[in-house]
Amino acid sequence: MKNYIRQVIELFSQNDYPVSVQKQFRHWLADEEHKEEKMEALTSLWEEAGQQRVPQGMQQSIRRMQQNIGMRPVSSQKRYILRIWQVASVLLLAVSSVSIYLLLEKDDFSSDLIECHIPTAEIHELTLPDGTSVMLNSKSTLFYPESFNGKTRSVYLIGEGYFKVRPDKEHPFIVKGADFQVTALGTEFNVNTYSENDEVYTTLVSGSVKVEYDNLVSSVILKPNQQLSYNKLTKKSRLQQSQVDDVIAWQRGELVFSDAHLEDIFTRLEHKYPYTFVYSFHSLNNNTYSFRFPKNVTLEEIMLIISQVVGDIHYVIKDNKCYITN
C-alpha cells in the first residue's frame, strides 16, 4: 500500500491537473484512511529530496516553506533533481493541505477553497464572505471557502493577518494554523504564523479570543492587549502584555523590532523588500536589538543603521541580494 501511495503522489507531482482533480487529491490525502501509510510515503519522499543536490537558493526556499511553493528554473541536465524537488514541493503542499482540510466542515465540501497570496513588499485588505475584514501582510497566504456553510467560519493562515471579525455568536470565527487555532465571536486581533518562524503569536486588540495550541489540548483566553506566543518545536507558550501599536505597525508600513536577533530581523526585511539576504549563521552574533523604522525608509538606510549599531557586520546590496559579512 505504501508503494502505491508513493506512486500516486509522484504521479500527481509530475503533471498539471485541473483544479477539480487537485481538490480531489487533497481530500484523498487528508482523509483518515491509510493515514499512517500516506505520511510514511510523504516523509520518505521528503528525506530522499533532502539528500539531493539542488540549485542555489532552492534548499532555503523549500526549508522556509515559502508561500506558493514555487519552483525555480533549472538546467536540462538536472531533470531528475527537478522531479525530486517537485515531489518535495507536493509534500509541503500536502502537509499544509492536511491542516487546511480541517478548516472546512468535514461533511460539507460544497464551497471551493479560495487562496489569497500576498507578494513580497505588499499589504492587501480583503473582505471575507461573512463580512469579516482581513489585512494581510507581505508573503502571507489565507485560505478560505467561497461561502461559510457550516457551523463555524474557519480559515487557514500562513503568514500574518489582522482580523476584524463580524459578530455572529452562532457561527464562531476560527483562524487555523500549524498546531494552533484562534476562535473569536466578534473582535479584533493579530495573528503571526509565518512558516519559517518557530513561534506563533496571537495579539488581542479588543474583545475576547480563545487560543488553542499543542495539538489543541492546551488553551488560554486572551484579554485586550495580551499576547500569547507558542513555540511549535518546544511546545512552550508565554502569555504577556504587548504593545499593540508596535504589533500592528506593519499595517502602517512601519518596521518595529523589539529584542530581535539579526536572523529574525533579516527575515522580516525579506518580507518588506524584494531582496534575499545571503549570510552565514556563524557570522551573526547572538545579541538582540530593537529598531523602529518609518514607512518609506529604504533598505540601504536600514542596513546602514543596523551595521552602525551592531558594529561587526558589513553589507553589500547588489542586484536583488543583500550580502552580509563580518
Give short descriptive properties of this protein.
326 residues, 8 helices, 13-stranded mixed beta sheet, Phage tail protein beta-alpha-beta fold, Jelly Rolls, alpha+beta, 3-stranded mixed beta sheet
How would you explain this protein's 3D organization?
This protein is α+β, with helices and mostly antiparallel strands and about 325 residues long. The protein has three domains: about 1-100, no CATH class; about 115-245, Jelly Rolls (Sandwich); about 255-325, Phage tail protein beta-alpha-beta fold (3-Layer(bab) Sandwich), CATH 3.55.50. It is about 30% helix and about 30% strand. The strands form three sheets. Strands 1, 2, 3, 4, 5, 6, 7, 8, 9, 10, 11, 12 and 13 form a 13-stranded mixed sheet that branches.
Mean pLDDT, rounded to whole units? 78
Helix content: 25-40%
Globally, the shape reads: globular
- How many individual β-strands? 18
Give helix and strand order, one letter per element, not per position: HHHHHEEEEEEEEEEEEEHEHEEHEE
CATH architecture of the largest domain: Sandwich
Q: Give the strand content.
A: 25-35%
Report how far apart the termini are. Answer: 52 Å
Q: Can you tell me the number of structural domains? A: 3
CATH topology heading of the largest domain: Jelly Rolls
